Each structure stands twice: as C-alpha cells, then as structure tokens.
Amino acid sequence: xxxxxxxxxxxxxxxxxxxxxxxxxxxxxxxxxxxxxxxxxxxxxxxxxxxxxxxxxxxxxxxxxxxxxxxxxxxxxxxxxxxxxxxxxxxxxxxxxxxxxxxxxxxxxxxxxxxxxxxxxxxxxxxxxxxxxxxxxxxxxxxxxxxxxxxxxxxxxxxxxxxxxxxxxxxxxxxxxxxxxxxxxxxxxxxxxxxxxxxxxxxxxxxxxxxxxxxxxxxxxxxxxxxxxxxxxxxxxxxxxxxxxxxxxxxxxxxxxxxxxxxxxxxxxxxxxxxxxxxxxxxxxxxxxxxxxxxxxxxxxxxxxxxxxxxxxxxxxxxxxxxxxxxxxxxxxxxxxxxxxxxxxxxxxxxxxxxxxxxxxxxxxxxxxxxxxxxxxx
Length: 378
Fold this sequence. Notes:
It is a single chain. This protein is of the alpha/beta class. It has helices at 43-48, 58-63, 67-72, 76-80, 92-97, 124-134, 152-177, 199-210, 228-238, 256-264, 274-280, 312-316, 319-327, 331-357, 361-372, and strands at residues 2-8, 11-18, 21-25, 27-31, 54-57, 86-89, 102-105, 108-112, 119-122, 138-140, 188-193, 216-219, 248-250, 269-271, 283-286, 289-292. It is globular, with a radius of gyration of 20 Å.
C-alpha cells in the first residue's frame, strides 16, 4: 500500500508498505544486479549506509546461479542475508540489449545466454515464475524496451505487445501467489510504461496500464540515448496520467541532477548503476561536484572525500590514501569509493524527503544543483 504523506508542487513524499518493510519515498534503490553490489559491498554495509531497497536482475540470476537454486536456498532475502525490500527487474531490458542474440515473438523472446551461449526462452509467464522463485518484494512486468529512435509504427506495435504481456504477467503472478510453495505470496507487480519519445503513445499507454490497478507504475525506455531535456519532457507528459496514489518509478535513472528533476516531476523510485560504476573508477560525488581521485592533486590531500560526510570512507580515510589504493589497484580503494557514493545518494534522498515535507523542495533543488554545478556528470 502506498501512503501519500505530502505534496510540494508535483513532488511526492510517500510511504510504501510492503511485506518486507516500509519504503520511505522518494527513494534511490541500490543496484546489486547479481544479488551483490559491485565493489565488495556486503548487505551489512548496505544497512550502515542507509539503503532502503536493493535491486537485483531476473535475467542475470536466472542465468547464474539459476532461480531454482535461489528458491532452494530460501529466496533472495535469505540467500543474500537482506531483510529489507528487494525489487527485481524483469529481465526485459537485458534481453532486448542482446539485440544480436534474440528473436521477439508474441509468446516471448528466444535468445542465447551471454555467459555460455545456451538457448533460453523468456516470456511474461517465465519472467513471473523466475521472479516468484527469487521471492522479491516487487516484481517488474516483462516488457519490450525498444530503441528510443524506433519509428512510430514499430513503437506502437511494441507498446501494444507490452500491454498484452502485462496482462499475462498479472494473471501469472496471481496464480503463483496462490500456490502453497511460493515463498513470497504477497509479491507485488509494477507495470512499465513505454513509447520512446512519442508523447501521444506514452500517454495512451499510461492510461491503459493505469486501468489494470497494479501496485505501482514504472516509466521505462528512457536514459537510453535521448537528451535529458527529452526525458524531462516525457516525464512532464506522462506522470500526470499515472495514479498519484501509487508509486511512480523512473527506471535506470540516474545522475543526482536527473533524480532532483525527476522528483520535481512526481517520481518516487529511482535506480542507476552510476554511483557504483563511477566509484569503482575512482569518481566520487560531493555537494561541490564530482571528484576524480586519480588526479595527482589529491596525492598529498589528507582531507576526507567530503568534510562532514559520515560514510565509512570519510570517517576514517583521506583522499590521499584512497588515491594510493586506487593507483595500487587495491580493492579497498574501489570499495570505499562505492560506499561513499551510495551513502551520498541515500543521504540526498533523505534531504529530498525532508525538503518536500517542509514545502521547500524547489529551493532545495536549486541550491543542491548550484552547489554541484562545478562537477561533471551530476
């Protein structure tokens, strides 16, 4: 159940009640594709850096170790020792990114594993079955994520198929949740809005999936090559047609600036690999922009990544030491940068929630962006 606590313009401050605990929104979901955050970050670490939701990927876990293995181990929560909410991506984006390895049909998609080349079939029912075996808190519907530059005719046909697939996902999830051996019989389903950069197709699709009365609604197929301005235009067009009393999830987004702009347009849920990927390459986020700790100017810098930050890296180590670890290819350097970046994102979401509650979101956003403007990729 989604509880809308406060609105500040279109920005929403909510509380999403799940079988694995309450999610305070807006929220950034920390991405652990294969049931682990890249960068040697444990679930105990996640608890210490204010993570609310962990996100894992259906396709990757189906390929390795196998969703049946995870089910035999008691489901993802037990498998990875995480007692808070988990969202599983349906695998649609990964399947469709394997453009040279798959064939799309009405029944689903035939493709080859990127690991060992074996043939795999995944359709709406298979995706729901895999996610039920994983026993995540929130399952994503199986959809096609077409190229943002696909022509109008292809996009319309693709979105129509995604709608048909969504109906099949819901039917299969209802069946699975009724079975006695299902680990999480209260698994939730989010549908995904598609349509590229065609506003009319997006809006019509939003109306169609809203009628299905799902647990939440995602906006997919953005941040895949279009400009930030185009993404914001689509959000402004689509979000008003999604139910305000349900969570809205912008998939695969984004930078701190993307999140700040998304919240202002009514988005509740975000996820992105940026904080972990950038951290593994020595790029760290601060309120004064992004730093590249490989830069020589940090060699003798005995200050933390950011003064006042309470993350594990900043509490104990200097920029100079972390730079040394990165240069020496010591895993600890990568790990500390990832921890800092996730802490930065999770803390920013806390600030966002407080600003909305205070009715001061617009001024908070502008001040935050102004502070970070000297950093690239914000």
